[in-house]
Amino acid sequence: SLRTIQRIEKGEVNPRGYTLKTLAQSLKIELCDLTTQDVSTDDKAASKIRSLNTLGLLVILFPLVSALIQIVYWTKNKHLLSSRPASGKVLSFQILWIVVVLIFFSLVQILTYSITGQSVYGHFPVRTTGYLVLLLANISVILYTASKLNRNSPVLLLGVPSLV
After folding, report:
1. Which residue of 8, 41, 67, 156 is surrounded by the most CB atoms within 10 Å?
2. pLDDT tens-place string over residues 48-99
3. Which residues contact 57 (CB under 8 A, 6 or more apart)?
4. Is the backbone of residue 120 left (phi > 0), alpha (psi -120 to 50) or beta?
């Protein structure tokens, strides 16, 4: 079907044997012509995406700088990564995570000041606890994405818009 061909072209699915055979017959080419790829380029791109995702773990040591490091890595390897939509999703997630953290800190500060009139209130560290929750969520997504990349899953981070 047209939808199947669109999904194959976008890299959303890996075509099965019957689909490849039908496409080869329709295009009047050999089946091996459809299945032969430049494996070295594909392997390099997959390796670069895995590295990009792993760089996200720098958020543990350098919270706000990690996204910048990933952006620099992405731009240096753009020729390989731009052909893979997953790389844009991985980078977009990290950028959005930084935005969410900054909004969280701003809202906590504004709400604390508007409710109490003080910049810091009480002994319960709201900022630290909230940041740790956001950090654990980020690390969980990075690890989940790594497992999907290792299984060569074509679908990654569905809810994340591609910003790059």
Report:
1. 67
2. 788 887 888 888 888 778 878 888 887 887 777 777 777 778 878 888 888 8
3. 66, 139, 142
4. beta
31, 35, 63, 121, 129 from 124: Cα distances, Å: 65, 59, 22, 8, 9
Above 80 in pLDDT, residue 114? yes
Indicate whether 154 pLDDT > 80.
Answer: no
Specify whether the CB–CB gap between 85 and 92 falls below 8 A.
no
Q: How many angstroms separate the CA atoms of 120 and 113, rounded?
A: 8
Contact, 48 vs 76, CB < 8 A? Answer: no
Q: Tell me the one-letter amino acid at 12.
A: E
- Higher pLDDT: 123 or 151? It is 151
d(CA 118, CA 113): 5
Q: Rounded distance, CA 127 to CA 129, Å?
A: 6
Long-range Cβ contacts of 148-151 (<8 Å, 24+ apart)? 149/46, 149/49, 149/50, 149/53, 149/86, 150/50
Please name the amino acid found at residue 113: Y
Measure Cα distances from 69 to 5, 58, 60, 159 in Å: 36, 9, 13, 23
